[in-house]
Design goal:
Elements lengths: L4 E5 L5 H11 L4 E5 L3 H7 L12 H8 L4 E4 L2 H7 L2 E4 L19 H13 L2 E7 L7 H11 L5 E7 L9 H6 L4 E5 L3 H14 L8 E5 H32 L3 H9 L20 H14 L3 H28 L8 E5 L14 H11 L3 E5 L5 H12 L2 H7 E3 L3 H5 L4 E4 L11 H7 L5 E4 L6 H7 L2 E4 L5 H9 L6
Parallel strand pairs: 1-2, 1-4, 2-3, 4-5, 5-6, 7-8, 9-10, 9-12, 10-11, 12-13, 13-14
Bound molecules: nicotinamide-adenine-dinucleotide.
């Protein structure tokens, strides 16, 4: 079999960019990305705005769409004609029942598998691209086999995706590695070869790593757990720095210069967010508990606990610095996405910080360059569970200057580049005094800001001058 047609079920943050880059690099393959959501598919077919923001993505979509890249809601036809089918649907944390709050909810994966079972004919390679628990491929195979038509056969592969939002296009074009797990049978190995051939259109074969299916599934969870662990490790030290006078940036630099450790993912911050780290570690913890490995489960749970601690420590620092009350104070929140260069807010620390401040009675003025206003409102509504608070106490702005005007404090929650180059002199002039900046991403020039008159607080560094000034200012207007 030579793969001529690919179907991808799920047109989200993974399915869309992955298939767009694949279509760009494999002009000999026709790729159809399908989704249950009509709105999402309409946006993928639009020239104005794609459903997700990723630098460089629109150009690739415009180049390939209608040539060998198609977005459609006709899932049945796409499954029927495909030689290879990616399952790239969401696998969120379960919100009810057994494993609630920890296990991955596989209902969307199961739904996709059932659609394949009902509609596929002939030989198909089915590829798990979604992040799933170890041995999920077995469940998919059970569904497919139980509904097997006489003239159909399947090979299941695991091919987890390692792209990071905000750099998805570059990550896909220049992947560190492509992982493919398959069965050790002759048919399984042939399917692995077929998928390798697709990637080898642009990825050097030395970077296409093959292994058994369960290793591949676990490697994805392990990779995310390791990345998040580094962030929690440096964040834990940021608390020590604040208590002692050490500077976490200096510590991170010293530690990262060791070639055995390396410098990446050692930036202390308000905490990690995103749809994957927390969900995948919780999933790993749940798997360990089910395997009766409580010590391993407890070990990885600490990575999540440390992240929660960091977010709450930061939010509490805002309140305590503002004279222990933010009731009726106006606070600007700059950045709502979980990281720069994406409009995704899933598990964003900004949601936690904003919710904490709203509960304390603050009025929030929020600005993010890429997050849609309705998304901010939806996130805060579901997190505060009180639409009245959001209606009354939240204003969404379309630029940083109007968001910060007349506020008592400004909080940087996302490391957008544009926040570094704002005119802070103007912002200072337009803010209430004393004016506070809480830099949750460590992107600003703190000395410069202090010289302008700001009281500056950040992560992992004691701001000596600010402590002195803050106490000296207790009688100022609040
Ligand atoms: N977002 C990331 O950065 C990232 C990175 C690597 C891996 N992953 C993993 O990839 C998977 C997908 O993540 P995502 O962020 O793209 O999710 P997403 O929520 O953005 O997209 C999933 C899409 O699947 C669609 N869908 C669900 N069931 C369907 C069905 N039966 N038929 C057709 N469409 C269906 C949904 O409508 C949705 O549009 C997850 O398992 C995730 O953990 C995500």
């Amino acid at each position: 079999m030579v793969i001529q047609k690919i179907c991808c079920i799920g047109a989200g943050y993974v399915g869309g960019p992955t298939c767009s880059v694949m279509a760009l690099k494999c002009p000999d393959i026709e790729i159809t990305v399908v989704d249950l959501s009509k709105d999402r598919i309409a946006q993928w077919n639009s020239n104005e705005k794609l459903p997700i923001f990723e630098p460089g993505l629109m150009e690739i979509v415009q180049q390939c769409r209608g040539r060998n890249l198609f977005f459609s809601t006709d899932i049945v036809s796409a499954i029927r004609k495909a030689d290879l089918i990616f399952i790239s649907v969401n696998t969120p944390t379960k919100t009810f029942g057994m494993g609630k709050g920890r296990a991955a909810d596989l209902k969307y994966v199961e739904g996709a598998a059932r659609m394949i079972a009902e509609n596929a004919e002939g030989n198909k390679i089915v590829v798990e691209k979604s992040t799933v628990p170890v041995r999920a491929a077995e469940s998919i195979m059970n569904i497919l086999k139980a509904n097997n038509k006489p003239n159909s056969s399947y090979q299941i592969l695991s091919n987890p995706e390692f792209l990071a939002e905000g750099t998805a296009v570059q990550d896909l074009l220049h992947a560190d590695r492509v992982l493919i797990g398959g069965e050790e049978t002759a048919e399984g190995q042939e399917a692995v070869r077929q998928l390798s051939w697709v990637y080898e259109h642009w990825i050097p074969s030395s970077k296409v790593v093959t292994m058994n299916t369960w290793s591949s599934e676990l490697s994805k969870l392990a990779a995310n757990a390791f990345l998040a662990q580094r962030i929690s490790s440096i964040n834990s030290l940021s608390a020590v720095c604040e208590a002692t006078g050490a500077d976490v940036s200096e510590v991170a630099r010293a530690v990262g210069l060791d070639t055995r450790i390396g410098p990446k993912f050692l930036q202390a911050s308000v905490g990690f967010g995103g749809s994957c780290f927390q969900k995948d570690i919780l999933n790993l913890v749940y798997i360990c508990e089910c395997l009766n490995l409580p010590h391993v489960a407890a070990y990885w749970q600490q990575v999540i606990d440390m992240n929660e601690y960091q977010k709450s420590r930061f939010a509490e620092k805002v309140v305590s610095s503002l004279f222990n009350t933010v009731t009726d104070k106006r606070i600007a929140v700059l950045g709502f996405a979980f990281k720069k260069n994406t409009g995704d807010t899933r598990e964003s620390p900004a949601i936690y910080v904003s919710t904490h401040l709203l509960a304390e009675g603050a009025h929030l003025h929020i600005y993010d360059p890429k997050v849609e206003p309705h998304q901010i409102v939806d996130d805060l509504n579901s997190s505060t569970m009180d639409p009245d608070i959001v209606n009354r106490n939240v204003v969404i702005h379309s630029d940083a200057y109007s968001a910060t005007k007349n506020t008592h404090a400004l909080i940087v929650c996302t490391e957008w580049d544009e926040f570094v180059t704002l005119d802070y002199e103007k912002i200072y002039a337009d803010m209430m005094k004393p004016a506070y900046i809480f830099d949750g991403r460590k992107i600003l020039d703190h000395d410069f800001l202090q010289n302008l008159g700001f009281h500056v607080q950040t992560i992992g560094k004691k701001m000596h001058r600010d402590v002195a000034r803050a106490w000296g200012c207790q009688n100022h207007q609040m």
